[in-house]
Write a structure and sequence with these properties.
alpha+beta; three-stranded antiparallel β-sheet; about 40% helix; globular; Cell_wall_hydrolase_SleB; SleB_dom1; hydrolase activity; Cell wall hydrolase, SleB
Length: about 170
């Protein structure tokens, strides 16, 4: 009896370790992770902003340079809002977020996002010469990192809204 309890405890411990290493954990589905990224990064400002954030997440998943799952990307340390995987969400905005998250997971991308894998709060500026901006929407500026000689849009363009459904 004692050894079966030990075996069960070890199985639980190994399961928790494996879940923690996956970036998603046993607590969140891919849909929930996408919702969390949209909720905490787009400030629920617009559908365009949520879809653009989701598009960046998917660009990272598909790049081969980041984890191969939505939860792995969103849960990656230092990449998204602090506490993105653990903070409480106000569920009043949940239906719009869930709709946008499902849509992105089914293949929708913001039509102007291109290959962008990065964004920051609109209005901030950085001294780097490798940021090629593709879009400003939902309070964020989205960009691709390029060699400086291939940057043709070194400053964020004007904000655009109304490009995605609703």
């Amino acid at each position: 009896m004692g050894s079966s309890r030990q075996t069960a405890r070890l199985a639980v411990v190994f399961g928790l370790v494996a879940a923690g290493l996956s970036g998603c954990g046993a607590r969140h589905t891919e849909l929930e992770c996408m919702e969390r990224a949209m909720y905490f990064e787009s400030n629920r400002s617009s559908r365009d902003g949520m879809v653009a954030v989701g598009s960046v997440v998917m660009n990272r998943v598909e790049s081969g340079k980041y984890p191969r799952s939505v939860c792995g990307v969103v849960g990656q340390r230092g990449q998204f809002a602090s506490g993105v995987m653990s903070k409480r969400m106000d569920l009043r905005s949940s239906p719009k977020i869930r709709d946008a998250a499902r849509s992105v997971l089914r293949g929708e991308r913001h039509p102007m996002i291109g290959n962008a894998q990065f964004f920051h709060t609109a209005g901030y500026s950085f001294p780097y010469n490798n940021m090629h901006y593709v879009l400003v929407t939902g309070g964020n500026a989205f960009y691709e990192k390029r060699k400086s000689e291939f940057v043709t849009q070194p400053v964020p363009p004007p904000s655009v809204e109304g490009m995605t459904g609703y």
